[in-house]
Amino acid sequence: MKVGIDKLGFYTPETYIDMTELANARGEDPAKYLIGIGQRKQAIAPVTQDVVTMAANAATKILTPADKQSIKMVLFGTESGVDNSKATAVYLQTLLGLSADVRAVEIKQACYGATAGVQMACDYVRSHPTASVLVIGADIARYGLNTPGEVTQGAGAVAMLIKADPDLIELEAESVFHSADVMDFWRPLYRSEALVDGHYSNNVYIDFFNQTWQEFQNRTDTNISDFDAFLFHLPYTKMGLKALRTITSDDQHSQDLLTEFEAAKKFNAEVGNIYTGSLYLSLISWLVNSQTLASGNHVGFFSFGSGAQGEFFAGNVGPSTQLQNLKMQMEASLNQRRQISIKEYEAMFEARRPFEAGDYAFDLSEEKAQFYLKGQQNHQLLYVNTKNN
């Protein structure tokens, strides 16, 4: 039985900053950000958007009433949770109007959480062929103003519907994973910004990729020539390119893989780091922007979450009858955004209230999304679905 990703939905906030302007404001050569890091724009989340609302805004773009009836699990990968106990998936279940007959769970392991959800979802569907699973990868990447990691911030959500006989990607059952307790990136409970050892983290990422890729080849008797594309978790686009170059050479097939990577990084460069959703935003980018995409294309995926967990798995492009809808969705998502100044961005960054106990209400005059956060009352977050009002 074929199982995999049937639909993909994406949401990113409607405000962004330009990397050239950020570089100039920080006294850096813009080429460092544009070429050295490989980022062009960075999505900026207003206080009215968190991972729950972004996930709802992404999922509502793809779910039909029939889809909602078939969903038996909601698996929410994030490292930007809104509660130390209650799962983001439960909030999402309510906002989307899903049945109470649903298992709703949040998964955390840095940027790897959504992949854990995808694999659990595929296993569930293989034993429950008529069911489907909603998997979310949503995060707001925060390192702090005037920090080395500032250029790799971002915000967004990817929603994936996992089911039998999928339209977009048929995922293979075999995968290779590797974990180790390393302190390359972490965020203590008392912080809303991550701590990272950037150089060390880059090395861990590449090491995990090479280990899992080598073992995958051993288990499946495949090699690089069997793949039409390699997709990577992209905290910034240059990182994936560095990893890919460790296995490519000067031959034509390697050059073709590098061309496909260019297609796969395009949207990530426009949005920035969305942690758990970054690999799957790259998948969307490849599906939309590849000039050679065809049903049956064999694609490898490398998922990575600092701390650290890595996994290599593979799949094949399905019939892709919904590809035009995905292209239209992405065009609307990215073209409707508004550029803000660095001063506006800094004010928005400082305005976020991740650990405040008191009641508060946000200014909603600029909010246009269907789902948003309007504030907090009696220690409870207040979410709004405008279609219910």
UniProtKB/TrEMBL annotation:
<feature type="binding site">
    <location>
        <position position="242"/>
    </location>
    <ligand>
        <name>(3S)-3-hydroxy-3-methylglutaryl-CoA</name>
    </ligand>
</feature>
<feature type="active site" description="Proton donor/acceptor">
    <location>
        <position position="233"/>
    </location>
</feature>
<dbReference type="GO" id="GO:0006084">
    <property type="term" value="P:acetyl-CoA metabolic process"/>
</dbReference>
<feature type="binding site">
    <location>
        <position position="143"/>
    </location>
    <ligand>
        <name>(3S)-3-hydroxy-3-methylglutaryl-CoA</name>
    </ligand>
</feature>
<dbReference type="Pfam" id="PF08540">
    <property type="entry name" value="HMG_CoA_synt_C"/>
</dbReference>
<dbReference type="InterPro" id="IPR013528">
    <property type="entry name" value="HMG_CoA_synth_N"/>
</dbReference>
<feature type="active site" description="Proton donor/acceptor">
    <location>
        <position position="79"/>
    </location>
</feature>
<feature type="binding site">
    <location>
        <position position="29"/>
    </location>
    <ligand>
        <name>(3S)-3-hydroxy-3-methylglutaryl-CoA</name>
    </ligand>
</feature>
<dbReference type="InterPro" id="IPR011554">
    <property type="entry name" value="HMG_CoA_synthase_prok"/>
</dbReference>
<feature type="active site" description="Acyl-thioester intermediate">
    <location>
        <position position="111"/>
    </location>
</feature>
<feature type="domain" description="Hydroxymethylglutaryl-coenzyme A synthase C-terminal">
    <location>
        <begin position="178"/>
        <end position="258"/>
    </location>
</feature>
<keyword id="KW-0808">Transferase</keyword>
<feature type="domain" description="Hydroxymethylglutaryl-coenzyme A synthase N-terminal">
    <location>
        <begin position="2"/>
        <end position="164"/>
    </location>
</feature>
<comment type="similarity">
    <text>Belongs to the thiolase-like superfamily. HMG-CoA synthase family.</text>
</comment>
<protein>
    <submittedName>
        <fullName>Hydroxymethylglutaryl-CoA synthase</fullName>
    </submittedName>
</protein>
<dbReference type="Pfam" id="PF01154">
    <property type="entry name" value="HMG_CoA_synt_N"/>
</dbReference>
<dbReference type="InterPro" id="IPR016039">
    <property type="entry name" value="Thiolase-like"/>
</dbReference>
<dbReference type="InterPro" id="IPR013746">
    <property type="entry name" value="HMG_CoA_synt_C_dom"/>
</dbReference>
<feature type="domain" description="Hydroxymethylglutaryl-coenzyme A synthase C-terminal">
    <location>
        <begin position="265"/>
        <end position="355"/>
    </location>
</feature>
<dbReference type="GO" id="GO:0004421">
    <property type="term" value="F:hydroxymethylglutaryl-CoA synthase activity"/>
</dbReference>
<feature type="binding site">
    <location>
        <position position="273"/>
    </location>
    <ligand>
        <name>(3S)-3-hydroxy-3-methylglutaryl-CoA</name>
    </ligand>
</feature>
